[in-house]
Amino acid sequence: MNAVCLLVLVFAVYSQAQNSFELMLEDVEVAENTDAKIPCSYVATGELVTESPTIKWKVEQGDQLHVIYTFKQDDEAGSGPRSVEGLNRTYSVDDDGALVIPTATLADNKIMGKLNCEVDFGKTGSKNGAIMFSVYAVADTNPIIMLEKDTIFEAGEKMDIGFCETGFGYPEPKITFYRGGEEVESSSGSESLDKSDGENDALSEFLGDKATTSKGMKTSSKRYLKKLLTKEDDNAQFYCMVTSGGSKPANQQQRNASFPLFRVHYPTDTVTLRASSKTSFVGDQLSLTCDANGNPSPSIILDGQPSTTMNIDVTKNDDGREITCSAQYSQPDVEAIREVYTINVVYTDGVKVSGDGKVNLGGSTTLSCSVNSKPPSTVHWTKNGVVISNSGELMIENAQFNDAGTYECVAENQFNQLKSSDTVDVMVKGIKLKSEPAIELAGEAGEEVQLTCMVSGNPPPQINWVKMSGEESTDLEQQPQASTSGNEYTSILKVGPLTAEMSKAVYECRAGNEVDSVMSRYTLPEIQQASASPTAGIIIGILVALLVIAVIVAVLYNKGIICKKGEKGDENAEDIAVEINKEEPPADADVEAGKPEETPAAAAEKEELLNGNGDP
């Protein structure tokens, strides 16, 4: 086989695979005296989508299929009915190849009931499939209901309650009995029924508790409701449902008819006691209603009173209370039937807190929380909205001032309206130093130091300052104190100006309240006399020099050695010396006599002074 032939073969196989079709056939049922259209549907792919196949309709007779119509679109010569022996029925084919049976009759169920559709695409091949065609007739009358006996029955008896009868239909109409919304199964057994309905010698057939009457292919049904009566049947609504039409739900019609209500005599065996609430709260109003079955109705006694209802304003004491309802008959041999309801009260007596809320600093105390409630409650402790314990006991150990405050115990259960709480105020008493003082303070002579004493205390402490001298102490003037925050207190003592005599002086801050006292000691440093600074020495030296100069200038001025105002300033040293000598007062004789003998050195110094600048 050459390549060209192989290619042609592959293409042919591929084309054959792409060109295919499938039949999509469904059974058809129609109502009597309506036109029936039976489609021969298929789904094609590939090139077959645009092609028109040959459709052949066939009827099954015995074991053979007979073509009754051939249809090819746009081919009148190849289309038309085919004669079949014994087939006397008018039919046609629509433009899409569907078989049309006008004014279908019940007889078509036998003639056309088994159809076959064949779709032929020539080279692609052909396929055929069976179609079931059926015609139905809806019953033409409503159900007829009647009771055949009195409307009062006795429980335990097997009674014919009544019957339900249909009109004629095809297939046979179906009768179903119901009590309320539940289907009732009637007892089996033959019933006597007139076999003639006076028309066309109708034949009646007995099927247990059902009788049927035929008229041609149509059938009418009559079915009895026979039942062993029970208390549930008393005053219950019975009815029958007639279903007629085709086999598909869309082609069915349903009609129903109700039996008259009837009573069944039976003794009381149930008392029902209902409450408005299964759980009651204190203050609620509980409503109770009691009734009983039985026909005739018994007398109702509720909590000792001839009544069917009662109201109770619920209290805690009603918890566990039993309410009895009884159904009684006047006959002494008939035992009363009773029902008991126990009241369930949900309550809480409130939270109770116990324990000492006063505790000394560093001590401990235990607070207890309890609650009497039903159902039992869970408890927890909170402070400032934060849960701090999930038990009924709260222990505070090594109490500090920040442990003081309001504590709340909360009790709650699954019923939110029963949530309750109680509070307790915890007070911590005591005193302690807020901070330790310096062992020695820094300071020099002339300065002032500040001693700060900080304590925490409750109740507020009294703070005193003393100066220690050996074992003796001297109280100082009371110093003001201030609360800085909460339980914290501060007192400040100012000491100074410092002197050398105050070296190593000891001061004590003594604070106390009704609970305890604390002491803080402050020791001043060794205080040295302050030394002048270099700058001060320089200034003092300058001032001394200026003072010496001023004295010398004054002496010279008074001696006339330096010029006075208005005098010439060009006098020489000799003139000045002469002038000085002239102004000297004459020496007193006694003075002169007492003078020491002038030494040679003194004489030379004097001579040098007289010469002015000491020049020779």
Automatic annotation (TrEMBL):
Residues 143-258, 332-425, 446-520 form the Ig-like domain. Residues 181-201, 580-616 are annotated as: Disordered. Gene3D superfamilies: Immunoglobulins (2.60.40.10). Keywords: Membrane, Signal, Transmembrane, Transmembrane helix. It holds the Pfam family Ig_3. InterPro entries: Ig-like_dom, Ig-like_dom_sf, Ig-like_fold, Ig_sub, Ig_sub2. Residues 1-17 form the signal peptide. The keyword Signal applies. SMART domains: IG, IGc2. The chain crosses the membrane at residues 536-557. Residues 592-609 have a biased composition (Basic and acidic residues). This is Ig-like domain-containing protein. The lineage of its organism: Eukaryota, Metazoa, Chordata, Tunicata, Ascidiacea.
